[in-house]
Design brief:
Elements lengths: L1 H16 L2 H8 L9 H13 L4 E6 L4 E2 L2 E2 L6 H6 L5 E5 L8 H20 L3 E5 L22 H4 L6 H17 L10 E4 L18 H18 L5 E5 L8 H4 L11 E5 L12 H18 L2 E7 L9 H12 L6 E4 L20 H9 L3 E2 L15
Parallel strand pairs: 1-4, 1-10, 1-11, 4-5, 5-6, 6-7, 7-8, 8-9, 9-10
Antiparallel strand pairs: 2-3
Length: about 375
Amino acid sequence: MRLRLLALSFILLVLSSSDPLLAKTYRNKPVDSKATRETEALYHNLHKLAKKHILFGHQHATEYGHGWAGDANRSDVKSVSGSHPAVIGVDFSGLSGRPPEAIEKAKESLRKQITETYDRDGVTTVAWHFPNPVSSNGFNWVDSVSAPAVSYLIPGGSYNGRYKEILHTIADVAHSAKGKDGTLAPMIFRPYHEFDGGWFWWGKPHCKQEEFVSLWRFTVSYLRDSLQVHNFIYAFSPDCLFKTEASYLERYPGDEWVDMLGVDNYADFGRNGRYNVPAGIKKLKIVSDYAQKAGKLAAFTETGLESIPDTTWWTNTLLKSLKAEKVRLSYVLVWRNDRQSPTHFYAPYPGQASVPDFLRFYQDPYTWFETDLPSLYRRRWFF
């Protein structure tokens, strides 16, 4: 009898392990097996909510906006809609290539933004406009000035030790960003974005495919395994230069190194007055489809229309595109509102011409802002 029960148990185990739904559930976990409970819950909940909703995000939303900076509990989106964005973008750009005092000030500012967002149950996503650590001339590629730094940073490269020091600084922020309850704030970390273009020093023309993959894998491994950072969700996001899944994955480091698949796309959605929305939708579907096959999250990691001259862009372009192919995306993020420039803004502010349409976008049940959120840091099964 006992042997029969053991045999039956074995058969059930084999059958369950071959069940694609169970296999997918197993895959839908962070690549960090030691991820904090809150990070794992966020990862789980982003998967769930993407079936019916999408979070709206804005870069630097609570740090500054159109004509202001540093005001407490303020964002242009909140001034227009009554709610902060659900996703707030910050940047690790200030954590290297500057004097020590400036780096410490940047750490303090980041901790403040990240923990305040976490305490409000919002979500933080972190870009990294990484100043070139070899030629020390900023993150943009400048011919005859910039160094092709990727080959220097990977293991065996002459700047690998310096790169480790910079990652220690990032780990300091990760380890110290704690909410009021004392728990570490999870973050979606999105390094080396838009790598398929040539405008950043880590871009495709400035490093080999295997060098980029090595840099990505080393970055994740060193933060996760050596520095014990366990509150990051790792996001991979090229620009929109791909047309097929194969070209999208050309520099992909592998499923074991990526939590979220993303894309940055301004060009297809009205940049300089040019629209190719069907192409933009196709690219979102490529990202979403691969993410579902691989058991990963997906997101529209950057987009927007500078100055928003198209007053119905929010519903007629963005919202329609997000709904067109029933893609599953955790969030969509538009770029920042400069505090001084009269034209460099991507979200409306009070009185801006697209406000009425933005409010329709805000009120659509598909889009979620911060006030719509349940706690995403405890596992939830239904939304």
